Amino acid sequence: MTAPRNVRIGLLLLAPAIVLLVCFTFYPTVATVIDSVFSTPRGRRPSQFIGADNFRTMIADPVFLRAFTNNLIYAAVIIPASMGLALAMALIVNARIGGRGLVRLAYFTPTILPMIAVANIWMFFYAPDYGLIDRFLGLFGLGGNNFLGQPGSALWALMVITVWKLAGFFMIFYLAALQQIPPSLLEAAALEGASPAQRLRRVILPLLMPTTLFILINAVIEAFRLVDHVIALTRGGPNNSTQLLLHYVYQVAFSYWDTNYAAALSVALLALLALIALVQFGVLDKRIHYR
Amino acid sequence: MNRIALNLLAWSMAFLWILPLIYALWTAIHPPVYATRFDLFAPLTLDNFINVWNAAPFDRYFLNTLVLVVFVVISQFVICTLAAYAFAVFPFRGSDWLFMLVLVQMMVMPEVLLVRNYATISQMGLVDTIPAIALPYLASAFGIFLFRQAFKSVPKELDEAARMEGAGPMQVLWRVYVPLARPTYLAYGLVMVAYHWNNFLWPLVITNSVTTRPITVGLQVFSTVEQGIDWPTITAATLLSVAPILVAFLIFQRQFVQSFMRAGIR
Predict the structure, then answer these.
(1) Which of A249, B128, B129, B246 has the highest local Cβ count within 10 Å?
(2) Coil, helix or strand for B25?
């Protein structure tokens, strides 16, 4: 087989994917960066080159700063929480318990439901006075909470929903990895007198490292991609306490129609994702030695 | 660890995890007065579902979603298969570099680029059409990655044997590679069905009429307009919109779980 033939056939086969990737990934990425240094056309005033003005506006924009810190807090909570719970669930479902299939089903079901539908159900859960949670707290005289309506608790209420939905998803990956650990390894560890906690820390967790990294990447993506529940439940409020980056991009672009400022915000989000990707690449390189 | 304690933990967590769904079901199958009152003998009713079905064009939303999901998954199969075949079987100078470039799409997801993609779609005159919802997702880096892995594990001898019999590249792909990668297709297909059945933000932006809206956007429009109307209606609408995927999941539970597992093993 000659190389020129490979080039010809290869490029022919790749053509549809390349065209689509150029149109909907590479061109828009470049165009977003270009858009971010122009002003939004308004009425008779056409778009003008304004250099870094959009970015100056951005770092002075309290809503952006709020969305940025909110998103970091949000990510810092949901990523470890959903991953830790996922690991616990996988260990539970992998152990010898009664009705294993049903338990696994219960953990996994939230994963396959649309976030938008899930948000509707939780809205009812969180409702002040007659929502299930508030009425439960009411039994102890702690009722009257408007979880989604108070700046102090709204973001946490959204985090609970996200963790609830993602934990079962990540559990599946841990479960797949757990089932691939040879039982002889664990038996050997037990014979050496290792306690269950030691077996978990010295044998199971190191073997789960590649899976943990894979889940971590997915968790990071979800932390910045998933804003359906923000749209359904709070629209960034109250008082921007649940404003997340992508939701702010969406609002600026499609509620205020300030498309070029939205482009600058998108650039900030892209830069953040690129930074995370670079860090992860550094870690992923080490992962290769594992296998 | 103590077996009883472990079982107790497992089951109470399972109960907690499924509680929101049970609560929603409870509300939806009882008259509004029982929405917040627990009476085991409260009369059952399907009125809430009937009201919802008559109040909004959910049948049309389901049809739109079905068309969208079928279109997305079939197109992804074709486009990603061809690209993965090129990367796995016809490597050329620079193709590894091209593959890395493809993987960028995993981090730069269509959602992050929605402002610019909206502009592109409107220049193409495709705003408010079903293909517009699908287009940004068709060249899926995840799919190309998975299929490439699957094709790479196909024994070279099978490929060569087919060639000896005079099969061209497309015939080899169709007769040797695709059949051997069937589990990967099933896994990727199910994950994508779930993803696009549930997708919301991009469809919300790009659609604005009953004839194109998928069920997720339809549900959001319905529950926003119906704010202030009773909870049972909203929960009934919610359950109605998740019913097909939930029922499919319960029936094909094993395949679903195994597919998600397979998609995660790399």
Answers:
(1) A249
(2) helix
Find out whether the peptide bond into B244 is cis, omega within 30 degrees of 0: no
Q: Which residue has the tokens 């395949």?
A: B255
Residue A276 and residue A265 in contact, taking contact as beta carbons nearer than 8 Å: no
> Which among A106, A113, A120 has the least Cβ separation from residue B14?
A106
Cβ within 8 Å, pair B120-A263: no
- pLDDT tens by residue, B211-244: 999 999 998 888 876 555 577 888 888 888 888 8
Whole-angstrom Cα distance, residue A170 to residue A177? 11
Question: Which tens digits make up the pLDDT trace of B9-47?
Answer: 889 999 989 988 888 888 888 877 776 666 666 777 787
pTM confidence score: 0.89
Which domains are seen in chain A, by residue range?
62-290 (1.10.3720.10)
A68: left (phi over 0), alpha (psi -120 to 50) or beta: alpha
CB A72 within 8 A of CB A256: no
Instruction: Name every chain B residue with its beta carbon within 8 A of the beta carbon of A93.
Output: 10
pLDDT tens-place string over residues A2-47: 567 888 888 899 999 999 999 999 999 999 999 999 988 887 888 8
